Task: structure prediction
Amino acid sequence: MASDRAVADEALIRSVFDQHGRALLAYATRLLGDRQAAEDVVQETLVRAWRHPDVLVNGRGSVRGWLLTVVRNVVIDRSRASKTRPAEVAESVSAPATVGDHAELVVDSLVLADALGGLSEEHRAVLVELYFKGNNVDEVSRELKIPAGTVRSRSFYALRTLRRQCGMGLTVGEEA
Result:
């Protein structure tokens, strides 16, 4: 008996799609400007119609009018939902490889923290002021009460030491 109802509901939805599917898709595409998204909206509309088959056969009002209203409501729901979550980023063939996952970032942070611990206090203080606090050379000079040239020199040697400790090697022009 339950399977008879399921077969009847499926036949009803197929009939609704045959009669109204093109109009629903055209309306959703016009609202969204994206055929794939419109197809998703039509599918959701048909699922809602399947959940409420009585609306389709009760003889009150226009079935197409009800379906078009559902399409509009689904589009509105999708729009509201998209505003509450971060924007989606389209994938492209030319897109650069994704940055490492969270675990890699944690490992990198631990390696960097360990490497910073291996620096002299003077070198570490300069890097903290420059890179973690975002101060420029003159501000670091005033904060640490050392000449600006010393700030540059210490940052150069501290970064070179960090590169070595992190296995990044030397850049062109640096001596071992």
Q: What stands out?
A: The longest helix spans residues 2-32. The chain has a mean pLDDT of 80.
